[in-house]
Recover the amino acids of this structure.
């Protein structure tokens, strides 16, 4: 049965954030809020977490997982960013964007796109997500909580708890965080390619 954490959206309770971070370090799969919608998250190297996310969302091996990072310095450890791309991403973060970039050796092979050797990265503009990332001290391996055969992500923490009670270990709820996923920009070729238009304004990359 999943634990349910009701967290203040503007002043997250540190004790609760620490408890959630500790559970992630211990291998938990959690649902947490972001600036686009709820996401599934686990520790970067958790094989079990990756497999459970794939199972919940019925994902194939071509799916781009996302490393949700606290800041740009952390992001730079996991992806290769040249000067032009650096400026474009820096100007757009934190925010509702996911960037697909060539991965560094810090990224477990299981997370990489099998042919491109790329991974998604993002820096959320969300108080609770940032508090959790700060406490964790490393990126959260994440995927949007969009269930198979459903067009929109769920928005209510209590509903997520009911639906995924035996599939996840914890649900962190700080209120509705919307149904629109991030805008996805693929920079793996060096040029910006808009893969998905979502919550972030895509016009700056067009």
């Amino acid at each position: 049965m999943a634990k349910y954490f009701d967290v203040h959206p503007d002043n997250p309770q540190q004790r609760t954030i620490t408890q959630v971070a500790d559970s992630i370090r211990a291998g938990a799969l959690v649902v947490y809020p972001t600036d686009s919608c709820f996401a599934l998250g686990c520790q970067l190297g958790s094989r079990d977490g990756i497999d459970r996310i794939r199972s919940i969302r019925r994902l194939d091996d071509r799916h781009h997982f996302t490393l949700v990072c606290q800041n740009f310095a952390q992001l730079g450890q996991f992806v290769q960013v040249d000067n032009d791309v650096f400026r474009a991403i820096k100007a757009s973060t934190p925010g509702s964007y996911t960037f697909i970039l060539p991965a560094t050796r810090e990224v477990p092979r299981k997370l990489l796109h099998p042919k491109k050797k790329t991974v998604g990265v993002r820096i959320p503009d969300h108080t609770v997500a940032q508090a959790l990332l700060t406490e964790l001290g490393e990126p959260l391996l994440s995927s949007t909580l969009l269930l198979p055969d459903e067009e929109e992500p769920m928005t209510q923490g209590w509903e997520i708890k009911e639906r995924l009670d035996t599939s996840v270990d914890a649900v962190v709820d700080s209120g509705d965080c919307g149904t629109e996923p991030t805008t996805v920009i693929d920079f793996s070729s060096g040029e910006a390619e808009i893969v998905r238009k979502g919550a972030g304004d895509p016009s700056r990359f067009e």
Q: What stands out?
A: DSSP finds six helices and ten strands in the chain. Strands lie at 3-6, 30-32, 39-43, 66-68, 97-102, 118-122, 140-144, 170-173, 183-186, 193-196. The chain has one domain: 3-196. Helices lie at 14-25, 47-57, 72-75, 83-90, 127-136, 157-163.
